[in-house]
Amino acid sequence: KELEDLLRAKAREASPLQNIKLAEREGSGRFRALIMQGGGKEWKIPGNDFRLWLGPARFKSTMITDVEAYVGPRDRASHASRGHTPRTAVMFGPAGYWYVYLIYGMYHCLNIVTEREGYPAAILIRGVHGVNGPGRVGRYFQIERTLNAKSADAKTGLWIEDHGIHISPRDIKKAKRIGVDYAGASKDKLWRFYIS
Fold first, then answer.
1. Tens digits of per-residue pLDDT, 116-149?
2. Cβ neighbours, 10 Å, residue 142
């Protein structure tokens, strides 16, 4: 919350915002600071939370609070249970790529591929702080199908970072996944994880 308020304040001061960039920790692949430039000024803001970031001048940062796991070809709740198709190809690829699909003809759902190449698995981001439901998450971050099969890094403009925020295990709840009653025994797997 403090980081979000700081970013909003700095963005107003820098209006019109001319540039946003990230300073990378040498050789680590992680980012040590967000640099915002505009109005003849520059601010360096250290990264200190889980963040999702979308495009120049459209910075959004929040914490992931609700996810569902879809793991392996035998998980009947997973799209990959239908085999390797053009739609599911990204799930069979390497970890660290976005899997985006449309539901109800209007909402894009955001998933991150998580397993080794050839073994289909992905995590659906069901909720972030203040936004619940995968369709709403997609709308909040203005997710489009063009992000599908793109890598989750700064080059594509959307990624996840872990900066060491500690969540007590007792605050992480497990439950059945939502909307998968068709999936036989797979529907009973406790593969939804959310912060209470």
1. 999 999 999 999 988 999 999 999 888 999 999 9
2. 13
CB 122 within 8 A of CB 70: yes
- Give tens-digit pLDDT for 10-41: 555 555 544 545 454 444 444 455 555 555 55
Plot region of 140 (φ>0 → left; ψ -120 to 50 → alpha; else → beta): alpha
Distance, in Å, from the CA atom of 112 to the CA atom of 28, rounded to the nearest integer, reads 21
CA torsion through residues 186, 190, 191, 194, sign: positive
The CA distance from 134 to 129, in Å, is 12
pLDDT higher at 46 or 111: 111
pLDDT band at 4 (very low <50, low <70, confident <90, very high): low
Contact 124, 109 (CB under 8 A): yes
Tokens of 120: 């289909």
Global pTM value:
0.71
Q: How far apart are the first and last CA of the chain?
A: 17
User: Does residue 129 contact residue 4 with C-beta atoms inside 8 Å?
Assistant: no
Q: How long is the chain?
A: 196
Instruction: Find where tokens 């992680």 sit.
Output: 30
3-class SS at 112? strand
Paired tokens of 152: 């989750």
Conformation bin of residue 105: beta by default, left when phi > 0, alpha when psi is -120 to 50: left
